[in-house]
Design a protein that fits this description.
2 domains, 8 strands, 283 residues, elongated
Length: 283
C-alpha cells in the first residue's frame, strides 16, 4: 500500500461482498484511493480467500455476508450474476435504505437489485474489465432510479484506482460491456492473428508475439498521450503508395470494420439474452 494517497479518515464505511479476482481488485482499489483498513469490511464464503484478504489488507473479513452490511454506507457486490439473487435475499432486509449499492455483476439491471432491497435504495451498476486488476481498466457506471450525482461521485471515488471510470446511461451499459468489457479479448485475438501472420512470414513465434503485443500497447499509449484522433495517427503511418496503406486497404477489403461491428453487436445481443435469462419477469 505504499502507493496510497493521503488516507481518507472520514471515508464512508464500505463492505465488499465477494473476494474473487474482481472483489480483491476492488479492495485494493479502495486502499489505494485512501480508504483506511477500519473503514472496509469484506465477506466471502471461502475460508481460504478470507485468510488471504486478512493477510493482504488487514481488514475485517466475515464468512456471512449478512454480518457486514448493517453498518455499511456503501456496499460493493462482486459475486457471480447467478448467485446474486440468493445473496440479495440473504442481506436485503439488513441493508439501510440510504446505503449505496454498487454492483459489478454482468447482465443484471439495477431494477433487479431495487426489487430486492429496501425501497429507495440507490443502486449503481458498474461494468469493469480485466485490466482493472493492474489499475489499467476501463469501467462504465450507470445510476439506477434512486441514485443521484452524489452516488455516482462516490462510486467513481471507490473505483478510480482501477483506471478510467466513466458515467453512462444504463441503456448504454450493454454497449460498454461489449466494447471495453469484452474488449481485452478482442485485443488478445488480434495479437494472436498478428503473431500467426508474423510466423507465416518466417518470424519466431515468441518474437512475433512480443512485437505484436508491444506494438499495440505502444500505439494505444501514443493515442492516449498525443491528443490526436486515431484517424490522424493512422494517416501519419500510412504513406501514399507504402506498405501500411497496402495492408490497411487489404484489411478493409476483407471486411475489418464489418467483422468488428458484428462482434460488438453479437456481444450486446448476448448480454440482453443473459439479462432475460437471469431476471425472468424482472427485466
Amino acid at each position: 500500500m505504499t502507493n496510497a494517497p493521503t488516507p481518507l479518515p472520514d471515508a464512508p464505511r464500505v463492505s465488499v461482498i465477494g473476494a474473487g479476482v474482481m472483489g480483491a481488485t476492488l479492495i485494493t482499489a479502495l486502499r489505494v484511493a485512501g480508504w483506511p483498513q477500519d473503514r472496509i469490511t469484506v465477506a466471502t464464503r471461502s475460508e481460504g480467500r478470507a485468510k488471504s484478504v486478512r493477510e493482504d489488507h488487514g481488514v475485517v473479513v466475515e464468512l456471512d455476508a449478512s454480518l457486514v452490511v448493517g453498518d455499511a454506507e456503501a456496499i460493493l457486490l462482486a459475486v457471480k450474476p447467478q448467485d446474486m439473487g440468493a445473496l440479495l435475499d440473504q442481506i436485503g432486509d439488513k441493508v439501510k435504505p440510504s446505503t449505496l449499492v454498487v454492483t459489478v455483476a454482468a447482465a443484471l439491471p439495477t431494477s433487479f437489485y431495487e426489487a430486492r432491497l429496501p425501497e429507495g435504495t440507490p443502486v449503481v451498476r458498474a461494468m469493469p474489465n480485466t485490466p482493472s486488476v493492474i489499475a489499467r481498466g476501463a469501467t462504465g457506471i450507470a445510476a439506477g432510479k434512486n441514485a443521484d450525482a452524489s452516488h455516482l461521485q462516490l462510486a467513481v471515488g471507490m473505483l478510480r484506482a482501477t483506471g478510467l471510470v466513466v458515467a453512462v446511461e444504463e441503456s448504454q451499459i450493454d454497449a460498454v460491456a461489449a466494447l471495453s468489457g469484452s474488449g481485452p479479448a478482442y485485443f488478445y485475438a488480434f495479437v494472436e492473428a498478428l503473431t500467426e501472420a508474423g510466423v507465416a512470414q518466417g518470424l519466431d513465434r515468441i518474437l512475433a508475439t512480443q512485437l505484436a503485443a508491444q506494438t499495440l500497447v505502444g500505439a494505444a499509449a501514443l493515442l492516449q498521450s498525443s491528443g490526436e484522433s486515431p484517424q490522424t495517427l493512422r494517416q501519419n503511418v500510412s504513406s501514399k503508395g507504402g506498405t501500411t496503406l497496402a495492408a490497411l486497404g487489404s484489411m478493409e477489403n476483407a471486411g475489418l470494420q464489418g467483422v468488428v461491428a458484428a462482434g460488438v453487436n453479437a456481444a450486446v445481443t448476448r448480454a440482453k439474452e443473459l439479462s432475460a435469462e437471469l431476471t425472468g419477469a424482472d427485466d
